[in-house]
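Hi team,

As requested, here is the filled-out complex form for the thiamine diphosphate run. I kept the field names the same as last time so the parser does not choke. Let me know if anything looks off before we queue the next batch.

— J.
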Amino acid sequence: MLTLAVQTDKALDIFTRVIRIRRFEERIATLFNQGQLPGVVHLYIGEEAIASGVCAALRDDDYIVSTHRGHGHVVAKGGDFNRMMAELFGKATGYCKGKGGSQHIADFEIGMLGACGIVGGGIPIAVGAGFSARYRETDQVAVSFFGDGASNEGSFHESLNLASVWKLPVIFVCENNGYGEFTPTSKVTSVTNIADRSAGYGMPGIVVDGTDPIAVYEVAVKAVARARRGEGPTLIEAKTHRRGGHSEGENAFLGGQKYRSAAEEAEARAQDPLLKIRAYIVENRLATAEKLDAIDREISQAVDAAVTFARNSPDPEPSAVFEDVWA
Ligand SMILES: Cc1ncc(C[n+]2csc(CCOP(=O)(O)OP(=O)(O)O)c2C)c(N)n1
Ligand SMILES: [Mg+2]
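And here is what came back:
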């Protein structure tokens, strides 16, 4: 049940974040399957409630750190479609000048400190950002998004311990989609609820329906307030569903998602964050379906424009290959 009166503007804000991610990702899927994008892409479709609900609870100057499944986090924090799309096409106008691709998008201007291809690799970075905020005596907070698989990495455990000891303004958001690649979480994880691991580190642990954008927003608001007050970190476990495969194109080389049942796939479709936020807004008469459709159309046009921008952008110069390299 909804406990917080989420006002119209905030509900529309959350809806907009969800649908921006959805439409961007749907286009990425199409482009990838047409062979137009180099590299590999891990889509966030089905999990949009988490980045959207959490980022709607943040200020512009707060930090987030992302994962290999990172497009949704960038979009939810206010990332630029053109620069994202250009990066995915490997163009010089992309966020990393076309040299990073899907798993390395960062935008310091909006507090997005980076995606990370190393599972669990982003978690200590968020702790560092939280420490920085404390050291500089700002009241910024840092959010670490990571998967259920990452919660079995040492970096998760070390990060929670240090953040708790120093009462850092960090929110750990575990996106539990039930799988690490093709392995069910239950086969490799010692607890049913990853949120229970918070007890070992002396911080609150909360389980939330990670397919419900409003529910995620409500728990994020509380965790952010606690962090800003200097009371320390929170672990939020958002239980969700990955709509597609681990990475796009998996169906082609695996012959379908053989590791999960048709019933489970249907459940993932039914628990659709986009349908949930639409229903919340329309049923509570916060806005009409027509208004939501108009926002949807506008976003689809922005995605079209981003594809055109990316296609018309130049490739990076070969001579630039050693620029921006730190080794
Ligand atoms: C340290 C490390 N180990 C293994 C991998 C290969 N790998 C990439 S994604 C992934 C699964 C991660 O699962 P989870 O953290 O649950 O995130 P999800 O993909 O479900 O969003 C693995 C094992 C990696 N990139 N980094
Ligand atoms: Mg997972």
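Two things worth flagging: The pocket of magnesium ion (ligand 2) is lined by residues 147-149, 177, 179-180 (CB under 6 Å). The longest strand covers residues 170-176.

Thanks,
J.
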